[in-house]
Write a structure and sequence with these properties.
By secondary structure, this protein is α+β, with helices and mostly antiparallel strands. The chain has 5 helices and 4 strands; from the N terminus they run ααβαβααββ. The relative contact order is 0.20.
Length: about 170
């Protein structure tokens, strides 16, 4: 069995999120309480699918899932969660735009983490339509024809989920 330090170093060395280190117990919770969801979750593709579902309502082309920076998105979400500031690490993954749902509470009555993700994206979609970026920015990011890819990063801690959607 590897020590906690070696396991954390291996995870961080692979580019995974800060605070996502396992204590070896199999619980998936790191020393700081961050759930292993700060790494790849399986929700990444769901996130892209939901965004593309809204884009389809306007006959916009689907965005490709931006997978080659997936580790960066997870790390970015964990760092933002740690700082408790939305967009605190904007640009870290070389994205052109970002939507963030900071520390949304989740529970099983709304479909758990996936239900929370769906509500997050819906809330951003409901900001539009409009052209004033200060009022409709999330919607504008989701409908921007210049963007060809989107990648999503997640971090979970204390019953809440931090979601970043990075556009390129």
């Amino acid at each position: 069995m590897r020590s906690k330090f070696r396991r954390c170093a291996a995870i961080l060395g692979a580019g995974w999120a800060l605070g996502a280190c396992s204590d070896g117990s199999g619980s998936g919770t790191g020393a700081d309480g961050t759930d292993s969801l700060a790494m790849r979750t399986g929700l990444e593709s769901v996130c892209v699918e939901v965004i593309n579902g809204y884009r389809a309502e306007l006959s916009l082309p689907a965005l490709a899932e931006w997978t080659d920076s997936a580790a960066c998105f997870a790390r970015q979400a964990a760092l933002d969660f740690q700082s408790r500031k939305g967009h605190a690490n904007f640009g870290l993954c070389k994205e052109a735009a970002q939507n963030t749902c900071p520390a949304w509470m989740w529970d099983e009555s709304i479909g758990g983490k996936e239900g929370t993700l769906r509500r997050c994206v819906e809330s951003m979609w409901n900001e539009g339509p409009g052209t004033d970026y200060s009022k409709h920015g999330h919607y504008i990011n989701m409908t921007n024809k210049a963007y060809k890819k989107v990648g999503c990063g997640f971090s979970v801690k204390e019953g809440s989920i931090w979601i970043n959607m990075d556009f390129k």
